Amino acid sequence: MEKKRLSFTIGDVRDMARRFSNWGRWGNEDELGTVNFITPEKTRAAAQRVRQGKVLSLAIDFDKNGPQSGFAGRMNPIHYMMQDGGDVVSGAQDWIPVLRYTDDAIIMPLQCATQWDSLAHIFFDGKMYNDRKPNLVSSNGAEKNSIVPLRDKIATRGVLLDVPKLKGKDWLEPGEAVYPEDLDGAAAMAKTSIERGDIVLVRTGQMAMCRKRGGWGDYAGTGDAPGLSLACAEWIYRKEIAGFATDTWGTEVLPNGTTEVFQPLHCVSLVHTGILIGEIFDLDALAADCARDGVYDFFFSAPPLPITGAVGSPINPQAIK
Amino acid sequence: MEKKRLSFTIGDVRDMARRFSNWGRWGNEDELGTVNFITPEKTRAAAQRVRQGKVLSLAIDFDKNGPQSGFAGRMNPIHYMMQDGGDVVSGAQDWIPVLRYTDDAIIMPLQCATQWDSLAHIFFDGKMYNDRKPNLVSSNGAEKNSIVPLRDKIATRGVLLDVPKLKGKDWLEPGEAVYPEDLDGAAAMAKTSIERGDIVLVRTGQMAMCRKRGGWGDYAGTGDAPGLSLACAEWIYRKEIAGFATDTWGTEVLPNGTTEVFQPLHCVSLVHTGILIGEIFDLDALAADCARDGVYDFFFSAPPLPITGAVGSPINPQAIK
Amino acid sequence: MEKKRLSFTIGDVRDMARRFSNWGRWGNEDELGTVNFITPEKTRAAAQRVRQGKVLSLAIDFDKNGPQSGFAGRMNPIHYMMQDGGDVVSGAQDWIPVLRYTDDAIIMPLQCATQWDSLAHIFFDGKMYNDRKPNLVSSNGAEKNSIVPLRDKIATRGVLLDVPKLKGKDWLEPGEAVYPEDLDGAAAMAKTSIERGDIVLVRTGQMAMCRKRGGWGDYAGTGDAPGLSLACAEWIYRKEIAGFATDTWGTEVLPNGTTEVFQPLHCVSLVHTGILIGEIFDLDALAADCARDGVYDFFFSAPPLPITGAVGSPINPQAIK
Amino acid sequence: MEKKRLSFTIGDVRDMARRFSNWGRWGNEDELGTVNFITPEKTRAAAQRVRQGKVLSLAIDFDKNGPQSGFAGRMNPIHYMMQDGGDVVSGAQDWIPVLRYTDDAIIMPLQCATQWDSLAHIFFDGKMYNDRKPNLVSSNGAEKNSIVPLRDKIATRGVLLDVPKLKGKDWLEPGEAVYPEDLDGAAAMAKTSIERGDIVLVRTGQMAMCRKRGGWGDYAGTGDAPGLSLACAEWIYRKEIAGFATDTWGTEVLPNGTTEVFQPLHCVSLVHTGILIGEIFDLDALAADCARDGVYDFFFSAPPLPITGAVGSPINPQAIK
User: Rounded to whole angstroms, how far apart are CA atoms D41 and C53?
Assistant: First the structure.
């Protein structure tokens, strides 16, 4: 496997895309990609792992104080009240007999906080997963590869790989890459192994760094970031995992290790391997808990909202031990 | 227990509110209500029930064709593309090296589709759950009783009570009430029992009726509807369930059995018992599946989005057998 | 000129597009189209017509009770309060010394109520005004032909042509077309003439009909409607008017007089003549006023909001006599 | 009159509120305040002033690059495409015969860019203009004092007072106050006078400063700003102007000259005098034009959008010479 390789060309990316492709593997109509690895038996076995009945939420708060800065048009969620306690007392609801109520709404980019990318989120050389063309994603939404087919699929074994812990530090530095041997090392440290159909949660500690310094700063795509090297593409493909997620904005180390293509791991792994990618996962409490009890795998449930045509979904992932 | 009682006065409602109240039961600071019945042991045991690894989504599609008609300001979700396939081909993304992407956003009332009510959603006689005042819910959101404390709590045993099946019909008629004996009867028919900490899914068949007739019509609060009678308030309280949900807009039978107070069961059970209520659950596929395999209980995971200050949350509930 | 012609082929439309084209007339960089006819002298003379100091608003209310039904994704405006009187009294603003405030926001399609179309709103045979291609309008907005260049241009003479009054009826029936001779007849009845650079307000009475019957019904694009026949395209071109507006959803008579192309007058007059088109103007009070004082021309000011990249704008047009 | 007074107490503010109050002046039902000074004769005379036919837009661009930073929940406008050129070419509109189109929408606080405050925007000591209570502004909007009554009222004489020009500088410094003698001085310099019913545009140059330094910075309410001193309240009242506007976020000098009440001039002049206040007006091009031709007064048309219940409105004010 690729190791510690620092720079790549567009030719390398295209070569990896070809070698690590699952296009056609589950048929030409497939929209699930590696989520196909989550079989009923996988789900059943994962649920059996629940020993303590402890639930951890891996979502950040959805609110105006989130990480988004407006880059690429992504803002933080706007939550507004359609009816509130002021209306309860002011008489604005006197048309209703006795009962009073509050009601609210949200405006948000689907990928502004903790989220899944759908397989319609990324195109490489004019194609998305399973050889599909851009005209399948119009202003009316994605006709194929939307988040909707995953509505009942994301229930499997989760594994936390705590890379800064492996490296004996609080967090990886901005620009610090995670390599396949780091993933293997973190699994070994956790005394666990990565299995087909798992969802792998890779902690870089970037969110802990933001907490420590008291603000998101350039977390949301405009600054350097720790994250996966493109060198992980083969590991992701060979391990036959269902998906992975990180505590960063964009999964990949920034700068990317190539200037010829932005987010090359998305181009290879999401577009060609068909992997499920999660971003802006809050893994800090989970990491602390795993360090306490030594248990790094768990039942993992993170259902997307089935928003018709959506190319991503806000989620509140649950790690259940 | 109350049975088949058809009409109620505001005095009855206040009396029930007093008798079936959990205010203070878990302390003055409590914001969970009956979700406190979901203990780690409960979660653990529920997960152990997973035998087949089968997952069913109980959410309807989130889109413009949803049930909302604008009543009380609730519209269906508006999904819009911030970047789409047209931009991929038109050159609008040529500022990015090679990778192309799509991105999207949503505008929606938090209770427009499948959803949880938070304990800040309803006020009765000037108070919400645990003796809290309306000024705690301002235009800035709910300071107390928001949906956020439930972020890591909704993992428990779910039970489907298929009332139309019990009654030998396809659906309950608009205006047809569900009584405690119907709930007990449906449980008996399913050869199961209701236990402390369960989340009970009560199927009325109204959604099946809408499917049959080809449209939502007056489903969203403006027409008659099947649903729970206020007579169920004691059953809900005594059973010490964590929550319940239905396949209707508003849980309760409409008309309500009293003209003196709107949605009286919310006033008693949500405000005083502190029950978790889910609405617009799609229970049809689940009902068909339960009828097939005879298994009416399952692991149930339905995490809300932790939207700061929110009085409800869109969800994609998962029944896992 | 074309008169009373009832049906057209796509060939007719293409022929008219060629004959009534202003592409290149004001240079290849032009984004104003016929608004170029509004010269400073025209604006000056129009202002001089103000004799009474009477102002009439031609906008409908912007609110949830507007004409939109969701057709083509257009909804009515959603107005929400960010801060309201309840917050003033509840203490939610106690962080501010003494002053209290309210604040609000809106979500709306730019063409949901009284509005201008920009020249980027319509394409015919793959081109918009002045031979421009679709890739100039991406998800980021219109790079050319947006509403913005009109920000300081819409101040000219307005003329009301009250067609139902000419025909001795309260309103034109759905499906009833307005022909060039109707426009000429209405001008003659008003003892006025149409001049270069005018904005012509053509009243069909459809809004009065909706008021009479108590609802918008299928006003917004889904039903038959009175409106301009394609036969008016030459009149519009020859008169060298700056723009026109109607009290209908879509300007044109529906059905259109051809099934081969939807809204053919837009294809000819907006795309090729480069005309400014206004829709959903409330002309009823103005018509009553003109009937009273016999003055059918006035100073007309209807500035669009300069929304970057917008293909339309909500407006509150002012007729000042 | 008050001059150069630098600091005030809450007692001073209350005293001024009492002395400069127009509550009841136009009856208890009045919702127009000083806009009542715009009579038909005033409008007529103002229109007659148009000599050149030159139109200047005083609005900034409405887009994501606007001044808002999220302070007090105000964001910049979000413009999104419902249909765009990509859909024209991709086939997404092939359900329509031949014609193709684009369509768009906006999400924005009503006071995020160039705007009017309505008389329901500010409360002082529990009341808004004309002795009205907060319960008149619920989550459903303002029942009284909304922007709607102004829909056909804002057509009058405008006058530019260029204060930095008077002071021989490019702009007033952040924190620099404008006093009544500055207003009189700027009028004298312009060889004009302020008359009853005028709308007075007070330029501080802050927007020019932002342009020079290349960004909005803390313009939107979070930094020091030039602006009117509370000492201007009497001038505003005595002159019987219909309204005034500035090129700043909040009209008033920041810091305010008192820490006991925020934005005290709003408390006196908007709440008690009932004055129309405009903010974030772009006066730079107008100032340059006035300096060129020596003409500082003009016809002024700035109609609000009649958004039901709105406490402000985006506008594109037109100065027509």
Answer: 6
